[in-house]
Amino acid sequence: MTTYSCEKQDLFPFFLLDKENGFFLDVACAHPINASNTYLLEQQKNWTGVCVDIGDVESLYSWSKIRKAKSFQADATSDEFVEILKKSVGSRLVDYLSLDVDVGGYVEKNLTHLALRRVLEAGIRFRCATIEHESFKYGESARNEMRDSLLSRGYVMLFEGLTFPEIGRAH
Fold this sequence. Notes:
Blueprint: H1 11-17, E1 23-27, H2 39-45, E2 48-53, H3 57-61, H4 63-66, E3 70-73, H5 79-88, E4 94-99, E5 102-103, E6 109-110, H6 112-121, E7 126-131, H7 135-138, H8 141-152, E8 163-164, E9 169-170
Parallel strand pairs: 1-2, 1-4, 2-3, 4-7
Antiparallel strand pairs: 5-6, 8-9
Helix pairs in contact: 6-8
């Protein structure tokens, strides 16, 4: 089976939920196929969902010609993002949340914890998630904040501190 995500995140909901016609929320989706955590679900399990990125993925990649999922351009830490989620997801239960919001370049920063706050503020509930905190690079503070927030809401962590030997990083 072909995996499209960088660290095989797409295989987690694929096998855990083993569900046809599911629904995902992919935050910081980037390219419609390369390094996508949700493309496999669309292609193999007929899922659909909502994809959000700070870049204009429609203009950059002709998103709607490649993907069924609707894409939105928004900063995942903004009020606009919360409004997009309320309108496009609403009270629907998300089967899979993919969350990996970091900024590269001159100033590297992981903003996933701030994006998770906004997802929860929008009232989004989900069955499973992959959340990249990159504590090996940015420290444990944001990771711990996210874990505490999710555990206090009744979520259960199935795996923690996953390490992929072929790339030498922990998530």
